[in-house]
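User: My instructor asked us to take a sequence, write out its structure as tokens, and then describe one feature of it. I'm not sure where to start. Here is the sequence I was given:
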Amino acid sequence: MTLQTKLDDLREMIESRLDKQVDTLSTVREQYLSFVQDDMPGRAYSHFPDEMNRWLEQLSNTYSKDVEADIHQLALVVLMQRSLRSLDSSRHADQGGDNVTLPTMVIDSIKEWFEYLADDIATGCYEPAVHSDLFRKDIAISALNMWPSRSICHYEPRPLPRRFLTANGIAQFVSAADMLLRKLNNRQNMYELHMEDRRTNPDFLEPGWRAFYLEIAQRLESEPHVSGIFAQSWFWDPSVIHASSKMAYLRTLPESGGASFYLLESCDDAGHVALQNKKRRRLFDEGKYTPKSYLMIWPRDDIVRWAQAQ
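Assistant: Let's start with the prediction itself. The structure tokens for your sequence are:
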């Protein structure tokens, strides 16, 4: 069965259930899709517009949990149908407004993720919790507001925030200003990376990260208007590498290809995810370690050059 047929069957099945429960199903469906396709592009995937949040809350107050879940799943399925049709020509309007041919690997990653979602929905395993980070990623990916990869991260078009300029004194300011002025064509046109928690094992290991960077380098090579990638995380902190040398690849792999790292902030929250590790927890309790968030920036030309050398 093709992916398109699978999605068609899923849509028919969900709409058949909802027809008996929702009088204005087509209106509800189209309003949902309008929020995602018209209002969400350009926004961070996790931050729904206020009007959309109010509408979703009204939805929750109006229908049973089962009906609400079906409405969310119907939105996912229809968005995937539309996105598949948009990929038929394998061309896509990039952030510069030009049509580009997407690499085959990018298209394959999309179809693989859609297959995964469709199978989960079809078997009743999918849980569309509207406040879940995973569901918000899936909504964004289904609309291609965010792009899936075959490995550890997804990525979405986002402007690079400027707060790293002033986060850590004059030395970082000078380095960060040099990055903005000399190495990035346009900080407004970049991809922000987001880890996929459903793929941490084994994709969090070095081969998984390497595969991801090679994949997104292919994408960047086809999109000259995109200036590079960025992300922020605690595990790029040199203190983490010092305490656990096995994690060094997380920073040294991109750093070897020209990525730069900038301190953003410290966090003394005892519930921080970095403290789930026993050694870091002990160091934290002894006052010898505080989680710190670092920004990684990998300019387009550098990551493409790195990938070509692999």
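For the description part of your assignment, you could build on this observation: The first strand starts at residue 91 and ends at 93. Try explaining in your own words what that tells you about the chain.
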